[in-house]
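Translate structure to sequence.
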């Protein structure tokens, strides 16, 4: 993120197709470098992970409020099992900053 400011609100939208979403671990890595877990091997053998995570509903994201957000924000997706396949169809990040 090029603009300075402190985080007021954040929402992460995910669309992932995978043969077993219970194998996936998904984290948002803010400029601080400390990953925030969004999805941690839940969902069993479901095939789609279409979800919005926000600071209003997820305490780990809410903990980022007031933190500086200048720098790179990354999405980290890990498949913790073998022999299945998946695809990150899309993801988006909505951020509101305070001056």
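Result:
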């Amino acid at each position: 993120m090029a603009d300075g400011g402190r985080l007021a609100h954040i929402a992460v939208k995910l669309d992932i197709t995978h043969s077993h979403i219970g194998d996936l671990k998904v984290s948002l890595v803010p400029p601080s470098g400390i990953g925030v877990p969004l999805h941690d091997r839940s969902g069993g053998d479901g095939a789609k992970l279409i979800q919005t995570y926000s600071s209003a509903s997820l305490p780990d994201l809410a903990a980022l409020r007031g933190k500086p957000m200048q720098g790179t924000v990354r999405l980290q997706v890990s498949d913790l099992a073998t022999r299945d396949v998946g695809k990150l169809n899309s993801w988006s990040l909505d951020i509101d900053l305070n001056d």
